[in-house]
Design brief:
single chain, 91 residues, elongated, membrane, transmembrane, transmembrane helix
Length: 91
């Protein structure tokens, strides 16, 4: 909570500098920082919304699959056939 308050205070101070209309680089830097932070906040919110939509879809329309997948080479407790035979080691 303290970190959120501190970050909010810094953003408010930067916003005050940007809003005062002070000439020079201070206003441009403050405006740039606020635009960057705002862009990151909007991206975070949009990504969170996309994640929640995907999460809800996966929960609401989930159908469990069969335990034994057909065509699995290990379904009968045997190894799959080898395509190439193993090489003989020569000393």
């Amino acid at each position: 909570m303290f970190a959120i308050t501190t970050i909010g205070a810094f953003l408010a101070a930067i916003g005050r500098v940007a809003g005062l209309g002070t000439p020079g680089n201070a206003q441009a830097m403050a405006t740039g920082v606020l635009v960057s932070v705002g862009f990151l906040a909007v991206c975070l919110a949009v990504f969170a919304i996309f994640f929640l939509i995907a999460w809800l879809v996966s929960i609401l329309w989930y159908r469990p699959a069969d335990e034994l997948v057909e065509g699995s080479p290990f379904a009968d407790d045997q190894l799959p056939p080898q395509i190439l035979p193993p090489r003989d080691r020569q000393p």
